[in-house]
Amino acid sequence: MSSFLLTVRESVRYRGRIGHWSWLAHRVSGLGILTYLIVHVWETANATFKPELYEWSVSLFKHPLFGVGEIFLMAALLYHAFNGTRIALLDFKPQWWQHQQATAIAVWALFAVVFIPLAIYMMVGIVNYCGEVPAWGGSCWTVPPYPLP
Questions:
Q1: CATH of domain 27-131
Q2: How is residue 145 annotated by DSSP?
């Protein structure tokens, strides 16, 4: 257990360079994507094995908090893709690693240019959904009732 704690402590310790922050953001975004994939596979499997639970989870995932979660998921996907491409390109040409700071800044700039309009578009969708009355008759903040067996 102490080696695990040492690994965690050393992985988040600030080392003063943008490469460390890129590494940390890449790992966190990857874990976020993995979490989404696990929930997505579970929820989709319910379509076959427990259709009433699947219908409930689809209704639940329309809740505004899950909409905000989708915005974070989009951020994780975009950053992970852009930074992964940067890493792959730098691995093809090891002499390019001397430009790590410039490429990391370029990734963050590209991320901002692509993500900000997408986040605004997704937020407008959440606000528009809250303007409509959900199918179960409550407000958009109401959690749909769980289907009892």
A1: 1.20.1300
A2: P
